[in-house]
Design brief:
CATH architecture of the largest domain: 3-Layer(aba) Sandwich
CATH topology of the largest domain: Rossmann fold
Mean pLDDT: 88
Number of domains: 2
CATH superfamily of the largest domain: Response regulator
Strand order of the largest sheet: 2-1-3-4-5
Strand content: 15-25%
Low-confidence stretches: none
Distance between the termini: 18 Å
Number of helices: 8
Number of strands: 12
CATH class of the largest domain: Alpha Beta
Largest sheet: 5 strands, parallel
Structural class: alpha/beta
Radius of gyration: 18 Å
Helix content: 40-55%
């Protein structure tokens, strides 16, 4: 989405400058905040299309800022972190982050994540059929085609694939998937989830051992693309 507005909340001037150069060269409008307090003020007054939020801020934890933003801000928030801590990533996603990136990151990956996050924020309520690469998912008839061939999915497999497709590009934690598909009482049964993801991959992937649709985010969850 060209001309979308992005708010950077990061206390490192060099990171803000780098992000500004990358984003402005790709036609994004950029705002900057060096503290969480300033970031919340800018988010409220300008309603950006997306926020890039650093986990380690000087005045408040990025996790705290995330939770505060999520009480009223409904657009995409991508978390930035210098540490690839599974616990921090899972907490951020559970607190409402759309995605996360670990510093240092490649500009191409950052831009791809931004495009995906902004696109997901503009869903069409009229979409009953969604095309995902060589897959076609019909939410009304609850059918799935791969290269125009009808696949035989169980009810649970279809529910799982639908959940992934509706959150395309976003990392879904194990706990979130288990709660959405099987209910609150199953949120710790990660092995149960791995079995179903494995059987689903066998049906939708060309090579289940090297999946391109359902990829694993180690220790965190899964991403569908």
């Amino acid at each position: 989405m060209s001309n979308a507005s992005i708010l950077i909340i990061d206390d490192e001037p060099q990171i803000r400058k780098l992000l500004e150069i990358i984003l402005q060269s790709n036609d994004y409008r950029v705002m900057q905040a060096q503290t969480g307090k300033e970031g919340i003020h800018l988010a409220a007054s300008h309603q950006p299309d997306l926020i890039l939020l650093d986990i380690g801020l000087s005045d408040k934890s990025g996790q705290e800022i995330l939770k505060e933003l999520r009480t009223w801000y409904n657009h995409a928030i991508i978390m930035l972190s210098v540490q690839n801590s599974e616990a921090d990533i899972v907490l951020a996603l559970d607190n409402g982050a759309t995605d996360y990136l670990t510093k240092p990151f490649r500009s191409a990956e950052l831009l791809a994540r931004i495009r995906s996050a902004i696109r997901r924020n503009q869903p069409s309520s009229h979409d009953t059929i969604v095309a995902c690469g060589d897959l076609e998912i019909d939410f009304v008839s609850r059918s799935v085609k791969k290269k125009d061939e009808l696949l035989k999915l169980t009810a649970t497999e279809f529910n799982l694939l639908s959940l992934f497709a509706k959150h395309e590009g976003r990392v879904l934690t194990h706990q979130f998937i288990l709660k959405e598909i099987w209910g609150v009482g199953h949120q710790t049964e990660s092995q149960y989830l791995r079995v179903f993801v494995g059987t689903l991959r066998k049906k939708i992937e060309d090579n289940p051992n090297q999946p391109i649709h359902i990829t694993t985010e180690s220790g965190v969850g899964y991403r569908f693309s």
